[in-house]
Automatic annotation (TrEMBL):
Species, as recorded: Capitella teleta (Polychaete worm)
Domain of life: Eukaryota
Main location: membrane
Keyword Protein biosynthesis in record: no
One function term, GO molecular function aspect: protein O-acetylglucosaminyltransferase activity
An annotated GO BP: protein O-linked glycosylation via mannose
This protein's name: Glycosyltransferase 61 catalytic domain-containing protein
Residues passing through the membrane, by range: 7-25
Keywords per UniProt: Glycoprotein, Glycosyltransferase, Membrane, Transferase, Transmembrane, Transmembrane helix
Length: 501
């Protein structure tokens, strides 16, 4: 009897020790990952001055249950106004009558993806830099999206460690992947944003508690190549984006000279996703300034004039591309390839949703199914079965299935409404998902991921825009092979809980 008591006591203390070690390890891992932000993050949630470094418990993560119906915020409008005024001052301060067109043979190459970027660029007097900063603990005052979720997958280990460091959601966003659907139901506070706040900034430059949300350079005289690389006298500046290996065009005095230009182009910028998620958002922190100064041209590759004209209220005649010289160049922070940046992307979303009704979750009646032409493996071979399944499920809930067919695309306005009213979007991986910019927070995205060239950019976009994300992944199948039965698991789960979302 005595011996077994002793044994039990020993086992108990062992368990306690293992537990303690586990907690220490967890804390250490998280501290490594999110560094000093953890304390601030914690404070952001319970708004108490608690200086014990401990991980926020679920009780602190649920505070943002508040509905997302009110997008607008006076605090945000003040920041936007202030940014526009400061940019106007900087442009006015630049004396463009003193430009030297003496372009040196080998200008110094500076990359916005380098740690020392802000220091490097300071050395060039022809470049002026402005930043937009805001207190991390007060971010929810200005961010139009207030609810964020854990993401989910049948194979979290694959999503977290896909063998490529390029698009690892975990490292990128500090969001957490869980195979337990139920854990994506409740909002988790600002945590999923911590990593994405760095997107577009030089690594390790973000100093908490004052985070840099965006920056812009005003450059006196220079030239821009087709991929948005800017050279001014003795410096070539590569913003973050796709194609970081490009070096910039060679100066040619024959190139068209214009007075002022705002540059948001990048390699692949003509493609739908890259244009909407990486190029156009760069303009948003400075939109007011551009609206008020109609003579400034805009350097971008894409032809999505609907957004530029109808959403930004900027005349498409201002858009230009190719090799250009300019007396004054405004170059906003770039956005890395496939990694949405929080502030500019949310501002784009905000600008779009000023024109769309805010529909509460329980009144969103569309189940959107994306149909893609069989190309690059990115389509559902069992589209018909999946459609049938959705129709059956929709009937149970009095909802409507709408197909977004990339061969017969609806008008811009209809596309906006279709996605705005979406309760759920079901799709193989592909650019049509970019239309979720028109969707509202909490909307569920069920994506069939493709094992070859696994790309989690829509998972990342979901984190930044507050969607609930479920990624189907199979390493014994390609994305076009998903059956209706396989997808039914996640589809039914969310529909059954429709009333509770
Ligand atoms: C711009 O520079 C030129 C040449 O140095 C000078 O004459 C002019 O006064 C300057 N203009 C302003 C507005 O500073
Ligand atoms: C998840 O993906 C990894 C890597 O491809 C694989 O080794 C593992 O078996 C998968 N797990 C499941 C449950 O499918
Ligand atoms: C989010 O995921 C993490 C890790 O699985 C978990 O600890 C946390 O409780 C989840 N949050 C919610 C609201 O389910
Ligand atoms: C769009 O801009 C024009 C000026 O360029 C202005 O007159 C008009 O009121 C603006 N429209 C909206 C909806 O803001
Ligand atoms: C289904 O929707 C229609 C119109 O949208 C409504 O008239 C009807 O009452 C709804 N039925 C149920 C069971 O909610």
């Amino acid at each position: 009897m005595r011996r077994s008591m002793k044994q039990i006591a020993m086992i108990l203390s062992l368990v306690a020790m293992v537990n303690f070690l586990w907690i220490l390890l967890t804390i250490r891992n998280h501290l490594q990952a999110i560094d000093t932000t953890i304390l601030l993050y914690h404070n952001a949630h319970d708004r108490q001055d608690n200086h014990n470094v401990r991980l926020p418990g679920p009780e602190n993560l649920n505070v943002q249950r508040e509905r997302n119906e009110r997008w607008s915020s006076d605090a945000l409008e003040r920041v936007l106004l202030d940014s526009s005024d400061r940019l106007a001052d900087s442009v006015n301060d630049m004396n463009t009558s003193v430009i030297s067109w003496n372009v040196v043979q080998d200008p110094q190459q500076i990359s916005a993806a380098s740690k020392s970027y802000f220091k490097d660029i300071e050395r060039f007097p022809q470049v002026k830099t402005l930043t937009v900063r805001y207190g991390f603990t007060r971010l929810s005052e200005i961010l139009p999206i207030r609810t964020y979720y854990n993401y989910s997958s049948n194979n979290c280990s694959k999503l977290m460690y896909p063998g490529s460091t390029k698009l690892v959601l975990e490292a990128q966003s500090h969001a957490e992947c869980t195979s337990d659907f139920a854990r994506t139901l409740e909002p988790v506070g600002l945590r999923p944003l911590i990593g994405s706040l760095q997107n577009g900034l030089p690594p390790e430059t973000n100093v908490f508690p004052d985070v840099i949300l965006s920056f812009v350079h005003v450059i006196q005289g220079g030239y821009i190549d087709n991929e948005g690389i800017v050279t001014s006298r003795d410096v070539t500046i590569r913003s973050q984006g796709c194609g970081m290996d490009t070096v910039g065009g060679k100066y040619n005095p024959e190139w068209t000279l214009i007075d002022k230009i705002f540059v948001i182009s990048e390699r692949w910028g003509e493609a739908f996703f890259h244009s909407l998620v990486e190029n156009l958002p760069r303009l948003l922190p400075w939109l007011k300034y551009l609206q008020e100064n109609p003579t400034i041209k805009i350097h971008i590759k894409s032809m999505y004039h609907n957004i530029i004209q109808k959403v930004f209220n900027i005349s498409y005649s201002r858009v230009t591309a190719g090799n250009i010289r300019a007396n004054l160049i405004i170059l906003p922070a770039g956005i890395p390839c496939g990694k949405p940046a929080v502030y500019p992307t949310q501002l784009l979303w905000y600008q779009i949703h000023k024109q769309l009704p805010a529909i509460p979750m329980e009144e969103r009646m569309n189940l959107v199914l994306i149909k893609r032409l069989p190309r690059k493996n990115r389509y559902f071979a069992f589209h018909k079965d999946i459609h049938r399944l959705l129709v059956i499920e929709a009937e149970k809930h009095n909802m409507t299935v709408v197909v977004f067919d990339d061969q017969h695309m609806p008008s811009f306005e209809d596309t906006m409404l279709m996605f705005n009213q979406a309760f759920m979007v079901v799709s193989p991986h592909g650019a049509g998902l970019t239309n979720m910019l028109f969707s509202q927070p909490g909307t569920i995205l069920i994506e069939g991921l493709c094992r070859a060239a696994l790309n989690l950019c829509f998972g990342a976009m979901s984190q930044v825009l507050g969607f609930r994300y479920y990624g189907h992944f199979r390493d014994d199948k390609d994305c076009f092979e998903y059956t209706a039965e396989e997808l039914a698991v996640s589809i039914r789960f969310y529909l059954r809980r429709r009333r509770a979302l």
